[in-house]
Amino acid sequence: MAAAMRSSLILFFAGALFLQGALGNFVCEELPTNVCAFAIATSGKRCLLENSAANNGKVEYQCKTSEVIVGNMKEHIETDECVDACGVDRNSVGISSDSLLESQFTAKLCSPACYEHCANIVDLYFNLAAGEGVYLPDLCEKHKNGPHRAMIELSSNGAAAEDEFAPAPYSPVPYSPDVY
Q: Which residues, other chains included, contact 95 with Cβ-Cβ below 8 Å and sequence gap of 6+?
């Protein structure tokens, strides 16, 4: 029941955003916090969830526009299916490459359900990995063959030499366990 309600909410907001996109701009600050993370505005900038302490001491959440531009996607709210398949959390405040050190997270991110069908999330983590000098397709292959060894190499930053940088994709590089 809860999943059906979330899907209905997503469809409602997607329809509203389609209409808004036809009439104006899709702005992160106008999104509800429960669909903010992993969304992309009309400007092509990623939306991010931020928190702050209210006067009453409670934590308040707001959807904000980041400075990170996604080259090939605009006006996108990530689906519940991709959030689940990739093992990400819509309530995450900030995103870090540290999650790539978690074997269970990397297994979900590299799974065909995520890697082949959730371009937005894969692109985000591809770029986070590249910032650490790691090429995500190689990490996924190493994780498939030996998850613990892949995590050791990543944590020691042995996946890439110091002067090497992984190129950022225009779209995610397809990963297939049968190809490598």
A: 37, 48, 124, 128
